[in-house]
Amino acid sequence: MRIGIYPGTFDPLTLGHIDIIRRGAKLVDRLIIGLSTNPSKTAMFSLEERRQQVEAEVAKLAEDIQVVTFDGLLVHFAAEQNASMIIRGLRAVSDFEYEYQMAGMNQQLDDEVETVFLMADVALQPIASRLVKEIARFGGCIDKFVTPEIARLVGDRVQKVATADQSS
Prior knowledge:
This protein is an alpha/beta fold. It has a single domain (3-122), classed as 3-Layer(aba) Sandwich (Rossmann fold), CATH 3.40.50. It is 45% helix and 17% strand. A 5-stranded parallel beta sheet has the order 3-2-1-4-5, with helices on both faces. Strand 2, helix 2 (47-58) and strand 3 (65-69) form a beta-alpha-beta unit.
């Protein structure tokens, strides 16, 4: 059985992520969404909230897809899951430079796990979770970038933070 890992923070999950999930699932018998934290990023949603969001969205796909949280090195997580492939999405040349370096380091740590790059759909290339959050915080419409449910959750979170800031 070919098992692949698509790792990320998915804060929030975007249509670009869903595109890579859908396409990546066709390459493997089982796709595991490896949901993690990134200390260099400020998360809008907790790890558990993101897990629930991703699970709800991937349940709509007819593929063998699991969502598993992890904390630590990706190659260790891949070994724990018996995965032979890491799937990464690329939007731009700047993504490639970073991902190429990470793939090289992962190969040095475990040469049994291959990294496969999937180019983002042209219409989805500009989408980045960081930008989606920024647009939402400034009152912009994010409907073109996320599912309706994720848009609602992001809007609710932005409103909650704004209300808390006003009462401080």
